[in-house]
Amino acid sequence: xxxxxxxxxxxxxxxxxxxxxxxxxxxxxxxxxxxxxxxxxxxxxxxxxxxxxxxxxxxxxxxxxxxxxxxxxxxxxxxxxxxxxxxxxxxxxxxxxxxxxxxxxxxxxxxxxxxxxxxxxxxxxxxxxxxxxxxxxxxxxxxxxxxxxxxxxxxxxxxxxxxxxxxxxxxxxxxxxxxxxxxxxxxxxxxxxxxxxxxxxxxxxxxxxxxxxxxxxxxxxxxxxxxxxxxxxxxxxxxxxxxxxxxxxxxxxxxxxxxxxxxxxxxxxxxxxxxxxxxxxxxxxxxxxxxxx
Length: 293
Description:
46% of the residues lie in helices and 15% in strands. By secondary structure, it is α/β, with parallel strands linked by helices. A 6-stranded parallel β-sheet has the order 3-2-1-4-5-6, with helices on both faces. Strands 7-8 form a two-stranded antiparallel ribbon. Helix 5 links the parallel strand 4 and strand 5.
């Protein structure tokens, strides 16, 4: 099935629907914004770089002159920025909240919250946003879409090192953060009746996260990566699918072939047992309460 046929079969007009998305200026985020704008959604761009945001808004308005755009500054590594953005979002009619922003191989530091910055960006701040905006989403029968990763397979959560601050390999630190957010949200929404959750993942695609390799190695591998793996526009369909289809407990949406290639397909997760999920959920709630205090 072509992308055009998939869109016709699995999406519909989003006039009157307001979608807030983190990380809109990256590869997958930008492609997702294009799909949403084409479907007439109103977009709230949550990003930390005003220059990149301005470029994206110009591009979207040039391609979709009638698109409704609003920007709210958001730095997920700065809890003050997260709190301010939350208050602004509460004043808007948000129907869909998309946690798309992510950080993989970045300089490590401890945030003002005491959390490792990779963990705060990929888990703690998105969970805080979800908990704060959940009452609003309930009122509007809204949805949270969380962009996960197959990297969550790389690490089992450690109650003695929740944010993996003592670990060095980026794949473990990033994977642990995605694992925590994914299962914490599944547990949070397991008995929810008024709002829904969709966990999605793009498989492997060529984005800024893929470019974390040393420059010489990246120069050699970037062209094969572009050929072997799905382009961001195709991979973003898995993210878009989450806007239209909720996920039942312990399921996610991703590429149908080996979680790497193909059009979106909903699958069951088999990467954590109930004991670990409940432990992750309890840690997420404890962290949320500390950030809110």
